[in-house]
Amino acid sequence: FFCGVVDLSTNELTDHVSGGFHNAGPHRLEAAGKLGIPQVIVPGCVDFFALGARDTVPEKFDDRKMYYHNPAFTLIRPSAEEMRKIAELFVRKLNGAKGPVRVVLPLKGMSISGLEGGSTYDPGSDQILFDILKTGLKSDIPVIEVDAHVNEERFIDRVVKEFLEIMGKMPPK
Predict the structure, then answer these.
(1) What span, in angstroms and rounded, lies between the C-alpha atoms of 144 and 137?
(2) Per-residue tens of pLDDT for the chain, all 173 residues
(3) Which residues sit opposite 49 in a β-bridge?
(4) How many Å apart are CA 35 and CA 56, to the nearest integer?
(5) Is 104 helix (H, G, I), strand (E, B) or coil?
(6) pLDDT at site 173
(7) What pLDDT shows up at residue 2?
């Protein structure tokens, strides 16, 4: 049913690593790759994992950066070590894909709270993820860096361009 995939919000990987509520299990980001379906992947929202209401967040996370998304969910910033593990999951899963893959990195933030000045802003931990993706992915998996936030129109325009190219609908430059 799918000719290609654009995956903009891969935060279930973070919840899997960090024990958040939105853990999709150990096979997230594998189905399209196993089937050889072309993919454009964005590490959107991997800079947080979801827990419950503010007053239910375990004390062990008190020292973490947080974003109070709504009365039911608190978003917690992963540690640098968790970001490393998340990046390694991306690398393992995407390197195993049978079809074409492209990764597009939003260098100015992966979520609303990850914007400069946001409550979970941590460019150092973001860079850990980006560096591991750039060095760990196979050479035939392009990693495109865009100096924009994940929600900016110019970022999405680039994702669409990459998707059209990977699907053979637009010649590469």
Answers:
(1) 12
(2) 779 999 999 999 999 999 999 999 999 999 999 999 999 999 999 999 999 999 999 999 999 999 998 999 999 999 999 999 999 999 999 999 999 999 999 999 999 999 999 999 999 999 999 999 999 999 999 999 999 999 999 999 999 999 999 998 755 55
(3) 76
(4) 40
(5) strand
(6) 59
(7) 79
Terminal-to-terminal C-alpha distance of the chain:
29
Residue type, 94: L
Per the CB < 8 A criterion, the answer to whether 73 and 20 are in contact is no
Read off the tokens for 170: 């637009």
DSSP for 35-85 reads: HT--EEE--TTTT-EEES-GGGS-GGGTTS-EEEEETTEEEEPPPHHHHHH
The span from the CA of 22 to the CA of 79, in Å, is 17
Can you give the pLDDT at residue 172?
A: 58
Please give the DSSP secondary-structure letter assigned to residue 159: H
Is the CB of residue 86 less than 8 Å from the CB of residue 12? no
Q: What angle do CA 137, 102, 138 make, to 5 degrees?
A: 20
Q: Buried b vs exposed e over 106-116: b needs ≥16 C-beta within 10 Å?
A: bbbbbbbbbbe
Tokens, residue 172: 């590469």
- Cα-atom radius of gyration of the chain, to the nearest Å? 16
d(CA 128, CA 89): 13
Would you call 61 exposed, middle or buried from its count of C-beta atoms within 10 A (0-12, 13-18, 19+)? middle
| Type of residue at 106 | P
